[in-house]
């Protein structure tokens, strides 16, 4: 029996000293904070920036021929407003962005809103043909479905039509162009 007692180690019920988990938690929190700060610093906050140049606002009046012989009746007609502006889109992401739709919204003093899409490139020749005063202002258009590669920019002219007079536009509360992008949130810029 003395032989077995010599081969068996002494029984010891003491536990090893436990380390405080707070130290490990603090180290992990500091590492996560540093990673979050680096991601925030190196990732762009804006998808893209927009800038406008060469903005022209042209009011037109179309008179309709009338067979009326009523005295003091003003000739029938229609007021139209055309906004021609060059928009530049600068991509700040590390991914390409693609233009979906381009709209303009004018808000009047009484908060009534009028929204229209940019005139389609196939309709521009008809507009410039019908309103000769717009033709000298024509420039290469910015197309829908344009893809802007990372770090690059795209620019072109946009033409918007509103069915009211230039005086109503001059008395507006605001005028904004909104660029809808595929897979990104919309971006807006104020028309000066």
From the spread of the alpha carbons, the general shape counts as: elongated
For the record, the CATH class of the domain at 48-63 and 77-190 is Mainly Beta
Q: CATH topology of the domain at 48-63 and 77-190, which one?
A: Immunoglobulin-like
How would a crystallographer describe the biggest sheet? 5 strands, antiparallel
Q: Uncertain segments of ≥5 residues (pLDDT<50)? A: none
* Rg from Cα: 33 Å
Number of strands: 8
By CATH, the architecture of the domain at 48-63 and 77-190 is named Sandwich
Helix content: 10-25%
* Order of helical and strand elements: HHEEEEHEEHEE
How far apart are the first and last residues' alpha carbons, in Å?
103 Å
What's the pLDDT, averaged over the residues? 83
Strand content: 35-45%
Fold blueprint:
Elements: H1 2-7, H2 21-42, E1 48-63, E2 77-91, E3 97-107, E4 113-117, H3 124-130, E5 147-148, E6 153-162, H4 166-170, E7 174-181, E8 187-190
Antiparallel strand pairs: 1-2, 2-6, 3-4, 3-5, 3-7, 7-8
Report on this model:
The protein is α+β, with helices and mostly antiparallel strands. It has a domain of 130 residues: Immunoglobulin-like. Helices cover 21% and strands 37% of the residues. Strands 3, 4, 5, 7 and 8 form a 5-stranded antiparallel β-sheet that branches. Strands 1-2-6 form a 3-stranded antiparallel β-sheet. It is elongated, with a radius of gyration of 33 Å. The mean pLDDT is 83.
């Amino acid at each position: 029996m003395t032989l077995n007692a010599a081969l068996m180690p002494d029984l010891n019920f003491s536990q090893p000293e436990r380390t405080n988990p707070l130290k490990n938690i603090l180290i992990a929190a500091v590492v996560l904070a540093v990673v979050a700060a680096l991601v925030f610093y190196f990732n762009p906050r804006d998808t893209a920036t927009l800038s406008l140049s060469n903005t022209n606002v042209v009011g037109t009046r179309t008179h309709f021929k009338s067979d009326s012989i009523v005295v003091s009746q003003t000739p029938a007609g229609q007021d139209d407003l055309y906004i021609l502006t060059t928009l530049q889109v600068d991509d700040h992401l590390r991914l390409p962005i693609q233009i979906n739709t381009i709209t303009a919204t004018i808000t009047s003093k009484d908060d009534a809103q009028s929204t229209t899409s940019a005139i389609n490139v196939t309709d521009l020749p008809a507009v410039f043909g019908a309103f000769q005063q717009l033709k000298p202002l024509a420039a290469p258009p910015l197309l829908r479905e344009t893809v802007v590669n990372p770090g690059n920019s795209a620019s072109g002219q946009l033409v918007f039509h509103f069915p009211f007079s230039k005086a109503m536009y001059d008395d507006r509360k605001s005028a904004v162009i909104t660029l809808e992008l595929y897979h990104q949130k919309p971006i807006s810029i104020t028309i000066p």
